[in-house]
Amino acid sequence: MRIAGAALNQTPIDWKNNLANISAAIEQAKEAGVELLCLPELCLTGYGCEDLFLSDWLPLEALRQLQKIRPLTEGICVAVGLPVRLAHRTYNTAAVLRDGQVLGFAAKQFLANDGVHYEPRFFVPWPAGETTTVEFEGENWPLGDLTFEHLGVRFGFEICEDAWRPDDVRPACRLRGKVDLIVNPSASHFAMSKTDLRYQLVLKGSRTFACTYLYANLLGNEAGRIIYDGEILVARNGHLLRRNQLLSFKAVDLEWVDVGFAEPVPLADFIVPLPAPDEYKELNQAMSLGLFDYLRKARSRGFVLSLSGGADSCFCAVGVAELVRLGVAELGEAEFKRRLGAFEPAKTEVVQTGAGGAAKQEAQPNPEGPQLTANQQLVRQLLTCAYQGTVNSSDDTFTSAKELADSLGARFLHWTIDDEVSGYVHKIEQGLGRELTWQTDDLALQNIQARVRAPAIWLLANVQNCLLITTSNRSEASVGYCTMDGDTAGSISPIAGVDKDFVKKWLRWAETELGYAALHRVNNLQPTAELRPLADKQTDERDLMPYALLNRIERLAFYDRLAPQAVLAQLVAESPEHDAEQLRAYVRRFYQLWSRNQWKRERYAPSFHLDDYNVDPRSWLRFPILSGGFGQELAGL
Ligand SMILES: Nc1ncnc2c1ncn2[C@@H]1O[C@H](COP(=O)(O)OP(=O)(O)OC[C@H]2O[C@@H]([n+]3cccc(C(=O)O)c3)[C@H](O)[C@@H]2O)[C@@H](O)[C@H]1O
Ligand SMILES: Nc1ncnc2c1ncn2[C@@H]1O[C@H](COP(=O)(O)OP(=O)(O)OP(=O)(O)O)[C@@H](O)[C@H]1O
Ligand SMILES: NC(=O)CC[C@H](N)C(=O)O
């Protein structure tokens, strides 16, 4: 039998888009002679509909939309994910359609409730072994723990998380011997290196349960924060039959394979491992796709970036250039532009974001500079950067910013903000009747500089109907090393999910492996906020602690969830090169800054989930805004 999985780039409650992708996948599958097709989890509504799953109307509308898919299934069997609400409870199901008929709904038995997933808030798990009936417009269909048969092949379901449970409880353990094929529609978030876990799960599952296993994941940045890699895997008895290229820019990515169910295949002696994932490359592809989808789904016309020439903002600038490079390489320029939508003349009926909304001018091809390549011209239309210097800014960072922006093709503007800073300082000095000095008002004088950069950069974003990128990384989010409404200003925060150490390493990789020679300068700069007088030689690590230690403490405290005492003990054991007293001071500082700054993490712009954890309270890590701040625990260190 020819079986297929299709990864789909869906959007919550975008019925038109979702149905179009489902229809396209079915059409492509039929053209390829596919007989059974698996589509991703909840692909009809979108996986990220959140509390809408608790309404009556959304699941009802999903059933109505399902009726439109039925006629497309003449001559093919298709699994389509959608919510079904019965007696005020919503179930996460996969409908099986064939020849225009609904054969039934397989329901998810184990709900994802860790990390970025909060499914028990929306869904009720289906009890193993039970079935019920769905009534809709005069028809009755079975729903629950079901198996099906198509062309003599018996199949059952695991829906995403179902497969992540132990072998003696997951649905597959009751399907063993009863089915030839297990179908898994998934919405499994991207995280660096995670593909290896999924690969093992599918390959081992097919061996342990002596079956063929068909897995299809969602694709793209579905709803803002979480990116799906669109992985399709087919395995039989521990042998890999098909695996696709991940993180495609296409709307529909279909993979099929022929399986001779009648011909026996021995169980694999061992699972052939995948080559180790290249995390720098993975992150690059995920971030590019994340930005691409965010831009087009937000119906915006480009990005604006306050480019300091430092590591974080340079990373974001390269991210936009990579969006163009990778998108054009896969789709071709015309399709890239069509899908992005940012290059069409502005329509008056387009919903305007924020105060601006004026039509974006076609970027001029850089009259005084060198001839731009086709990709640089696209970057020029999509990215405007501005350097906003003060007396505390160095020539190094200005040159770094300018060289990078020019090399990418981005529009580069620059001005100074000293007048605005002194204007505000003067007003407060007059109001309070005293001078503000670095001795008495250090942080306030730093913050006003970061804040004064915000209005102009927002203005630039508004007038061009662009998204303002904010450059926060996870390390500074952990300790609140940022000025609220200053350098946190923006509506999308692409790198807030990764730590500063990784940011620095990635930039070195991008310089050598991707050929961004203009990163050479930033790769030789010490991270610095440049908010204190230059003579002070401010660096992030002098203000805080070495980033490697900060990241380690953060991981031990909030990924491994150790108590402060245990974090310190672990650090002392693994860092003999550091003095124990110094480490104690760093651990104290970390927890104090962490607790004091939860409110800042609550106010960060939406960020992508890219690493296996993040500190965003909306997606991964919840912590009280007001707390005892680990007072007792730190006193006992
Ligand atoms: N629990 C709570 N809930 C709500 N608000 C709370 C609060 N605790 C304090 N606050 C408020 O927070 C304010 C202080 O926060 P905020 O004004 O943001 O500033 P703050 O956290 O005091 O200082 C900002 C830090 O970030 C560093 N920085 C700034 C800019 C850029 C960079 C860089 O790396 O480039 C680094 C800077 O060196 C400094 O260490 C207080 O005035 C108070 O109003
Ligand atoms: N001179 C500047 N011109 C424009 N934007 C600036 C300037 N200084 C700071 N910013 C903005 O504030 C953000 C925060 O600064 P921060 O120092 O944390 O990051 P960075 O300068 O990009 O990297 P690094 O910390 O490695 O120096 C910058 O990413 C940038 O968006
Ligand atoms: N949608 C799901 O059930 C996802 C859960 C699963 N643990 C994953 O991360 O892939």
Automatic annotation (TrEMBL):
Protein name per UniProt: Glutamine-dependent NAD(+) synthetase
A molecular function GO annotation: ATP binding
Pfam families: CN_hydrolase, NAD_synthase
Gene assigned in the entry: nadE
Sites where the protein binds ATP: 471
Residues forming the catalytic site: 41, 108, 160
Transmembrane feature ranges: none
Annotated source species: Hymenobacter polaris
Role of this protein: Catalyzes the ATP-dependent amidation of deamido-NAD to form NAD. Uses L-glutamine as a nitrogen source.
